[in-house]
Specification:
- This protein is α/β, with parallel strands linked by helices.
- Helix content is about 50%, strand content about 15%.
- A 4-stranded parallel β-sheet has the order 8-7-6-9, sandwiched between helices.
- The longest helix has 17 residues.
Length: about 190
């Protein structure tokens, strides 16, 4: 399958508001600049290993293996990473890239709160401001993760439009990013489009 910049076959592309085109182009240029930079890679690998706890452990699930008549089952224990999920893996790279781009602030959407916690953690580590957008309904259901984000000095904004859940938080985060692209990086945590 032929790859065209920004596409994979018929998939991909940029379907974004014109107000975000400059930010996405700036992000693409920074990514191209730093993805093979040895200093960037060394810092990211250091953080992933010594801060996030990578590589995450593999656990041999003996009982499950036995129950499945010998099909060997291993569990990849991403829950043992710092912040309790796989989210920190993505967030550290994005936050480090944002810092290299001169951004002073991270924003993110979150549903269950794990991505918000990871983003708040990276912001605290790298001395960046942090604003998290979360549906008001989700905030009630995930009060412990809201507490964790606030403990890390993030401002958590309840989104009270629509269903007051993740999709509305995404919309609000995109609006906020469009209004402050100069100093802000949107740490995308959801598949959208």
């Amino acid at each position: 399958m032929q790859k065209v910049k920004g596409r994979f076959g018929i998939y991909g592309g940029r379907y974004i508001p014109e107000t975000l085109m400059r930010a996405v182009t700036e992000l693409e240029e920074a990514y191209e600049k730093f993805k093979a930079d040895p200093d960037f890679q060394a810092e990211l690998n250091y953080l992933l290993t010594h801060y996030a706890g990578r590589p995450s452990l593999l656990y041999y699930a003996a009982k499950m293996t036995q129950d499945l008549d010998g099909a060997k089952v291993y569990l990849k224990r991403e829950d043992l990473n710092h912040t309790g999920s796989h989210k920190i893996n993505n967030v550290l790279g994005q936050a480090l890239l944002a810092k290299r781009m001169g951004k002073k602030r991270l924003i993110a959407e979150t549903g269950a709160g794990q991505h918000g916690v990871a983003t708040a953690t990276a912001a605290a580590l790298l001395d960046l401001e942090c604003d998290i957008y979360m549906g008001a309904e989700d905030m009630e259901r995930q009060a412990l993760n809201v507490f964790r984000m606030e403990l890390l000095n993030a401002r958590v904004h309840p989104v009270k439009t629509g269903t007051q859940t993740l999709k509305d938080a995404i919309n609000e985060t995109l609006r906020e990013w469009a209004s402050r692209v100069e100093d802000t990086h949107y740490v995308v945590g959801s598949v959208m489009g």
